[in-house]
Specification:
The complex is a heterotrimer. By secondary structure, chain A is mostly helical. Chain A contains 14 helices and 2 strands; from the N terminus they run H-H-H-H-H-E-H-H-H-H-E-H-H-H-H-H. The longest helix of chain A is centred in the middle third of the chain and has 27 residues, at 175-201. By secondary structure, chain C is of the alpha/beta class. In chain C, helix 3 packs across helix 4 and helix 6 packs parallel to helix 7. The chains are: A mainly alpha, B mainly alpha, C alpha/beta. At the A-C interface, helix 1 and helix 11 of A face helix 3 and helix 4 of C.
Chain lengths: 297, 289, 405
């Protein structure tokens, strides 16, 4: 149950990154910033205020979304690899702040003993199983939100940016504004995942902001299948469960883990979901965006 | 008020640090220039260099032999990876490369752990450079002077290679316009294998040279890859001179930053990168991204 | 208990005849009473401190092997559950939780990093499990973060710093500087050292903290040199420690400044060679400790692994010896009984006489100070014990991390 809960939380995180990576082709190397910020914010609120969990978690996500606008404004000045590196820079700065601002963040120890405060309606969600249902609901709602978003006109513009930004701009869309919006939304949603993680684990520490996590989330998205929403959720679960199980059997889990990724790239180019979908619905002729992108290169 | 001797020592410190960073950054930027690949496994190749260097040095007792053999070994490993795996992927988008090099980094790190064990291993400083010299009355290790010299030498060699040799010309041409080179009947794939091998080999040199300072250890690659990224981004992805400039800037900011504001040591590099990218999104010497 | 001892004897015969593995598979058919005792070890086998995790693993494995060959514990075989946490607190909690739920494990040891231990400790009550620390140095585990199900069977970081400070009271050094890794342990240890120096009316001229993963220490070495100190206290571990010592030697820093440290593993002199010569440090376990139990332990260890037992390996052995003494005293491994017994357990073992203190579950053990020297028969500089201090002098007051005298 613990593993499942964590997998679902990471699912929310990976899905939030998919908005950027899969739908807009903004490859972020710094999504840990969103996750870590969310965890620290909800952890701090639960430790230092009397807000219940059900208020602290969305509030943390909202704060991250607002801050995300500023980060997005800077990062979207660049594109391509420079965009990636700017997101990394912000994440590493967040890491340095969390490390140094000991009075608020607990420094290298992080925040510990974060309570799951029930509040008026939250009693159902305090227990271990209850919390699992809470994160499941969060995943489901986020999924509905993201799906509505990507199938809306807004989502169509994002895809336009992904395929050909210059053309979309020429059509009269303020592409920069759209990009800022999607980055901020993605940060907010990523922070929601982090905000759930803090009361789940009972602690928040600098590992949650470290670049390694950013890389891992990106891998989850790609393994699952970018630009599909469902894929990244599966990717997150796959990543966590395989890592966990492999490391039960062998110390050399990293070796096999690495080989699995390489095999995935070669044999399942569209990720888990692409693989599953190809098997399930061979007749449907869905456009394959990723191939289109590859041709554009 | 800093004394002159302090300034001289710190500048020498920064230059020796820049030399090591340069070996990593230049390989990364060459590979990016030709292949548009962000090589996440670059740190693992660097580490492989240190471990091969350890084995050769401890078997033969000769550091110089290690310095010659290890980069070749690492370069071959890199070229094989390009031939075996990357070659199949050039029609795919960057996420494929990201994942495949990330996977390689994981697998390679673990293979090194299995092969050489989890404990750090000593690579002795070569006898010729194990003493100190006095710089304005302050001791300075001759090995670090040697690092500075090696950095200058390799930078000159790469520059001459790119300018004077046919392969260098092809590399420059391919990084400008791969289709054109292909149209001229050149085997672009061969250029790619060569560049990937050379880039990894340069990381291997960095690994061997860093080993006497750091020991050969599983952790040595972890943060180095990020440092290398930062250098390359600051200098401009794909720019040879940029990687040199980036390495120098990062090293000087680190050395003087650590001295005057040690509490911000974690953040300097990133602040520098942020500043550069906001002013020039393509990096200092890069094409506009 | 008669039935149990019968079983023990029968199993001892089985063991002699067929080896541990077979005996373990036979056991369930013999009797329910011989259900194995499960010891959970979620270790950081990979990651930055992987070499420490590997040492703890070796310590656990040999102990379990030796103990099972003697008939197990309380007549029951011991089953060791080892899993890799990668040094990540979240993974440590998850793996430990799984051991509780899947395997019914209620005894933990070997959790490698203090950050992992600090994440696990608040869960112990919920899991109804005991955690016997074998290498966690963080002072808070027996102070602000203390929980009743936690026991520390190793010397803590403040105790190591204290032993070095006691040694310095009679040593010729006058001006001190300190460098630490920038995280809780490094800062803690430097703070204890600083207050000790000030209490002793020594000149403490400053300190600096390097971020974890620092590769180039040249600037820090310049700072140490400029401070004019004649001794420098170093709290580092792993790669950072090796890099610092190697580079300090390049600058010939030890010729001018005596290097001191809170703890040193043999992996350090093995990795940096002569650069470690002359270092004065406290050790939590030193294989050259002179007592019969330790001599026997070192001999057993060498036979198994063909090397001297390292700091963490001895610590892990001691932690499991403490567990065994507690279990035998309680005649049970049930959490409540075991906790009560462990709280006052004492034994003579590889570190001489040691005892768990009831008020904060900290082990009271002699403080050892060593100097690394070249010695006949070793390929690397080895520790030579230069001072020992009785446990009462090195242990802080109950649930404290600093000292008043």
């Amino acid at each position: 149950m613990t593993l499942l809960t964590e997998a679902v939380i990471l699912g929310v995180l990976a899905m939030s990154l998919d908005l950027m990576v899969g739908y807009t082709r903004l490859i972020s190397f710094g999504h840990a910033a969103a996750y870590g910020f969310g965890a620290y914010a909800s952890g701090w609120l639960l430790l230092n205020t009397s807000l219940p969990m059900l208020a602290a978690i969305p509030l943390a996500a909202l704060l991250a979304g607002i801050l995300g606008i500023g980060v997005a404004w800077v990062c979207t000045q660049a594109s391509g690899i420079s965009f990636s590196m700017l997101t990394l820079a912000f994440a590493q700065l967040a890491y340095a702040v969390a490390y140094k601002w000991t009075s608020v963040t607990g420094g290298s120890d992080g925040l510990a003993g974060i309570p799951r405060r029930a509040g008026p309606f939250g009693h159902l969600f305090v227990s271990r199983d209850g919390f699992y249902y809470l994160v499941l609901i969060a995943l489901f709602l986020s999924f509905l939100f993201c799906r509505a978003l990507v199938s809306s006109p807004f989502g169509a513009v994002l895809r336009g940016i992904r395929e050909n930004e210059a053309k979309t701009l020429a059509l009269g869309y303020n592409t920069r504004g759209y990009k800022i919006a999607v980055v901020a939304l993605s940060y907010g949603l990523g922070a929601l995942a982090g905000a759930l993680y803090a009361p789940f684990a009972g602690f928040a520490n600098t590992e949650l902001l470290f670049w390694l996590l950013s890389g891992e989330v990106l891998i989850m998205v790609i393994v699952g299948g970018a630009g599909t929403l469902i894929g990244p959720i599966l990717g997150a679960a796959f990543f966590l469960v395989v890592q966990h199980q492999l490391s039960n059997y062998t110390e050399s889990w990293a070796l096999f883990f690495g080989l699995i990724f390489i095999a995935f790239v070669i044999f399942a180019p569209d990720g888990i979901w692409g693989f599953v979908r190809a098997r399930l619905r061979r007749r449907t002729t869905e456009p394959d965006y990723r191939r289109g992108v590859a041709r554009a290169r | 008020m800093p004394s002159l001797s302090f300034l001289v020592t710190e500048i020498a410190n920064a230059l020796s640090q820049a030399a090591l960073l340069f070996f990593l950054g230049v390989g990364l930027t060459l590979i990016f220039g030709i292949m548009r690949i962000v090589n996440f496994a670059h740190g693992a190749f660097y580490m492989l260099g240190a471990f091969i260097g350890y084995s050769v040095a401890s078997l033969t007792g000769n550091f110089w032999l290690a310095l010659a053999v290890a980069p070749i070994g690492v370069g071959i490993a890199g070229a094989l990876f390009e031939l075996g795996i990357l070659r199949r992927l050039y029609r795919r988008d960057e996420s494929a490369f990201l994942m495949v090099t990330f996977g390689l980094a994981l697998a390679m790190t673990d293979l090194i752990r299995i092969g050489w064990g989890p404990e750090a291993l000593q690579v002795k400083t070569p006898a010729a450079f194990s003493g100190i010299v006095m710089l304005m009355g302050e001791p300075f290790p001759t090995y670090r002077l040697f690092l500075i010299g090696a950095g200058v030498l390799v930078a000159l060699a790469i520059w001459q290679f790119l300018e004077r040799t046919r392969l260098g010309l092809l590399i420059r041409a391919t990084s400008q316009n791969a289709e054109m080179v292909y149209a001229l009947g050149i085997d672009v794939n061969l250029v790619r294998s060569a560049v990937f091998g050379i880039g990894c080999g340069l990381a291997g040199i960095g690994g061997v040279l860093a080993a006497p300072l750091l020991t050969a250890s599983i952790g040595m690659a972890a943060d180095m890859i990020i440092d290398a990224f930062v250098i390359v981004i600051i200098g401009g992805m794909g720019s040879f001179a940029g990687s040199l400039l980036g390495a120098l800037l990062v090293a000087f900011v680190q050395v003087f930053g650590e001295y005057y504001l040690p509490n911000l040591a974690l953040a300097f590099m990133y602040l520098l990168m942020l500043l550069v990218l906001v002013v020039r999104p393509g990096g200092l010497l890069g094409k506009e991204a | 208990m008669n039935g149990n001892s019968m079983l023990t004897r029968r199993r001892a015969i089985a063991l002699g005849a067929m080896g541990t593995a077979l005996a373990a598979t036979w056991r369930p058919r013999l009797a329910v009473a011989a259900e194995p005792i499960k010891i959970g070890a979620p270790l950081a086998l990979t990651g930055p401190l992987g070499s420490v995790g590997q040492q703890l693993k070796r310590g656990c494995e040999l102990w379990v092997k030796v103990q099972n060959a003697k008939g197990g514990l309380l007549g029951r075989p011991i089953k060791l559950l080892v899993e890799d946490t990668g040094g990540n607190p979240a993974d440590a909690v998850r793996k430990a939780q799984e051991m509780v739920e899947r395997d019914g494990c209620n005894i933990f040891t070997g959790i490698t990093l203090s950050s992992e231990a600090l994440a696990v400790v608040p869960k112990l009550d919920e899991w109804n499990a005991i955690f016997i620390s074998s290498d966690n140095g963080d002072g808070r585990l027996t102070a602000a973060s203390f929980v009743p199900n936690f026991f520390r069977a190793n010397v803590s970081a403040p105790m190591g710093a204290r032993a070095v400070a006691l040694y310095l009271r009679t040593a010729p050094y006058k001006k001190f500087y300190a460098i630490g890794m920038d995280y809780a342990w490094g800062r803690n240890s430097v703070a204890v050292f600083k207050s000790e120096m000030e209490n002793a009316k020594k000149d403490f001229v400053g300190s600096v903290f390097s971020p974890i993963g620092t590769k180039d220490f040249s600037t820090y070495i310049t700072k140490i040199r400029q401070s004019g100190a004649d001794a420098c206290y170093v709290t580092m571990a792993g790669d950072d420690y090796n890099a610092f010592l190697s580079q300090a030697a390049h600058y010939e820093l030890p010729k001018k400044v005596q290097l001191l440290s809170e703890v040193v593993d043999l992996t350090v002199p093995k990795a940096v060679g002569d650069a470690a010569i002359g270092l004065i440090s406290s050790m939590r376990y030193c294989f050259r400790t002179d007592n019969p139990k330790n001599k026997a332990f070192v001999a057993t260890w060498k036979k198994e692994y063909n090397a001297e037992p390292d700091n963490n390996e001895g610590e892990q052995w001691q932690a499991l010896q403490v567990l065994a003494a507690g279990a035998e005293k309680a005649k049970s491994t049930e959490t409540k009984a075991l906790r009560a017994a462990l709280a006052t357990v004492q034994l003579d073992d590889i570190n001489g006489h040691v005892a768990i203190r009831e008020c904060d579950h900290q082990i009271v053990q002699d403080g050892t100070v060593v100097r690394l020297v070249k010695a006949e028969g070793f390929s690397y500089p080895v520790p030579q014990i230069i001072a020992t201090f009785p446990g009462e002098k090195t242990v802080p007051a109950c649930k404290q991390m600093t000292y008043s005298d």
